[in-house]
Specification:
about 150 residues; globular; about 30% helix; single chain; 4 helices; alpha+beta; 7 strands; about 35% strand; seven-stranded mixed beta sheet
């Protein structure tokens, strides 16, 4: 059996590591992330406030990131899903989202929500396969939601 290429972790990356990863992935977003946000400030906010599900590769460092903000009793907002271009096609985004659901699907989480540009067809397909459905559209962005299965647990 071949050794696992990626190590999965939670909340390990520093703001600088997150910023480097987001810069590497910027052009993969529609429109590019660097044109929409100050990446250093966004990475700092993610490092301070988000729960992060991360994929690490021994030679490349941080190669996958799902970052969520937990708003108790309301929702878990997925603010970022990104995989380094060199690691696409390995199922990392799916694995990281599933890790998020496994950890965050707890009684206080009523739903997961994210926003995606409909031109990001691969992302929309992934989110749909992961149980998200479109609920509204504002401007160019579609808001998608997925119920938290743990929402009704005691």
């Amino acid at each position: 059996m071949q050794p696992e290429r990626f190590e999965l972790a939670v909340d390990r990356a520093s703001a600088d590591q997150i910023a480097g990863h987001l810069r590497e992935c910027s052009e993969s977003f529609t429109p590019p992330l660097a044109g929409r946000v100050d990446i250093a400030a966004y990475a700092e906010k993610i490092a301070r406030r988000a729960t992060r599900f991360e994929a690490w590769e021994a030679t490349s460092g941080l190669v996958g990131l799902v970052a969520v903000y937990d708003n108790p009793q309301l929702e878990v907002f997925v603010t970022n899903v990104s995989v380094a271009p060199s690691c696409r096609g390995a199922g990392l985004a799916r694995r990281l989202l599933q890790g998020c659901f496994d950890r965050m699907d707890i009684p206080h989480a009523r739903r997961y929500r994210l926003e995606v540009d409909p031109r990001s067809e691969a992302a929309v397909r992934l989110y749909t396969r992961m149980g998200f459905v479109p609920v509204s559209q504002v401007g160019e962005m579609i808001s998608m939601e997925r119920p938290a299965t743990g929402g009704d647990k005691e």
